[in-house]
Amino acid sequence: MKRILLIFLISFSIFTIGCNTKLPNPNTNLEYWICDNVDNVNWENHQEKYGLFGGSEYYGLGYTPTIGKDNEQIDPEYCVIYTVTKYPDYSSKNSHITRIVITDPNIEFYGISLNSSFEEIKDVMKDIGFEIEENENIIRASKGKFLFVFTNTRIIISVGVTNKLGIIF
Known about the structure:
By secondary structure, the protein is of the alpha+beta class. The protein has helices at residues 2-16, 118-127; strands spanning 48-49, 56-59, 66-67, 73-74, 80-86, 95-102, 131-135, 138-143, 146-150, 155-159. Strands 1-2-5-6-10-9-8-7 form an eight-stranded antiparallel sheet, with helices on one face. A two-stranded antiparallel sheet has the order 3-4. Strand 3 and strand 4 (73-74) form a beta hairpin. The longest helix has 15 residues, at 2-16. The N and C termini lie far apart (37 Å).
């Protein structure tokens, strides 16, 4: 009995650890931050971005796509897109922000934005404990399940989501 309880507790802690691994306060002007629980968020005033299976995507408030000739959504030049999925596993009960795509240079977090130099970005991300990989056009900053990708035109912030039950979307 003790062995079964121990196995359950270990499994439960691994399964729920997810967003308990916190990042430092981003001091951001984003509406939501990576891993925010959004179970009680009313997305009615946000434009949904179509086409994602296994979750939903929403444009940040004030960003509206245009509609192309084939009725496809075309992202505005500057925008924020939030991806909402179950987390830490696709079979989990709660919905969280698991990806943020930023093309708006006015969005800041940790004092950096698309207007920041790659040197500034690397310095800030290293200071908060991220490992840095780079080439001339991209910086990848990773820490645990978190990945930040910086290019000259976009920032992608994501957290890894598991799929322990092999759900097919």
